Amino acid sequence: MEARATEAFPRLQGTKLVTSSIDELVLPSQLAATSEERDAPKGESSFPRSDKEENASHGDAEAAAGSSLLLKPWLLPRISNWDEQRQIWREKHPCEGNCNNYKSSILLVSSSRPSPCDNSHGDHIMLKFMKNKMDYGRLHGIKVFYNMAHLEIDMVDYWSKLPLLRTLMISHPEVEWLWWMDSDAIFTDMTFEVPIAKYSDYNLVLHGWEQLVYERKSWIGINTGIFLLRNCQWSLDLLESWSVMGASKEAREEGGRLVARALSDRPLFDVDDQSALVYKLVTNGEPWKSKIYMEGSYCLHGYWDSIVDKYEEMMQNSRPGYGDERWPFVTHFVGCKPCAKQGHYNETRCIQQMNRAFNFADNQVLQQYGYKHLELGSVMLEKTNR
């Protein structure tokens, strides 16, 4: 990674796949922040806040019932003029990012643990799923960033994506959208493209249903395993506000109690990023609600257990390009935990179906070269008529 002396932003150069090291990534302090802020301990900052930020924080504070643990800003240094900084940078670099092609303004981001998997099959599955994301990015001209570093040691598991996304956002002013995708999710329609123009008035796009979130207050009304986040001040504010429940073990425990009381179907355990976002929306929806699009017209998050046994039927009766239940865009193996010793579902079924999902998608790549898998459960290939 090259850091130019004349620019405030570290750049990703060369290949489209970049695996980070923590020394390369943690460079947001190069942004225009005061020295007092850079030296401030976590949870304290002398950076001035806008009225909008203050109101949002007060609303979150009321929802948290005065919890001191859930009032601390975590992702620092705080930035309040990002849209202006980004616009200045883009005017100086008019053809970086999305000059000719909107897809070049999307950065696909995924991540896995920095240490070997506990499950003996896990690293091989992670490699296959990473290859799948690389293939999709190559086919569609989308850059891929794969992370294997913890940027905030206290923000573990599903929370680790938030500091990563913030770091990438401020390091890549040329990128308009960051597309987060869990490591256990795989593209299974390699031709479908996200209708990005549809979201011109929104800053966050995720799979979900407004009725489940706002009327039933269900913590599974959305899925935060795959989402698109616009590179803007609104998103920086959201990440800061969203992160407070995941900032420490104590905050996650207290957050778990809060969401269990506020949401209709959330069991009592440490808060996760998904239930924290639902909690935020149902207790203090503005200024967030109006800029969030809950997508249900295609499988941005396709629940694996209702999909994987239908692959052969899809191959016989349909074709890629729909992205919906006829040929799902994404198959997400929620609960399988391929890198852990034990998940929520039968390990044998999970591993078997993950391999089938990979081959289902891989056939769409191999067909360009005149090959396909003998069957979805096999690594063996056969030639096809091109």
TrEMBL record:
It holds the Pfam family Glyco_transf_34. It is a single-pass type II membrane protein. InterPro entries: Glyco_trans_34, Nucleotide-diphossugar_trans. Keywords: Glycoprotein, Glycosyltransferase, Golgi apparatus, Membrane, Signal-anchor, Transferase, Transmembrane, Transmembrane helix. GO terms for molecular function: glycosyltransferase activity. Residues 29-64 are annotated as: Disordered. It is found in: Golgi apparatus membrane. Gene3D superfamilies: Spore Coat Polysaccharide Biosynthesis Protein SpsA, Chain A. GO terms for cellular component: Golgi membrane. Residues 49-61 have a biased composition (Basic and acidic residues). Belongs to the glycosyltransferase 34 family. This is Putative galactosyl transferase. It comes from Ceratopteris richardii. The lineage of its organism: Eukaryota, Viridiplantae, Streptophyta, Embryophyta, Tracheophyta.
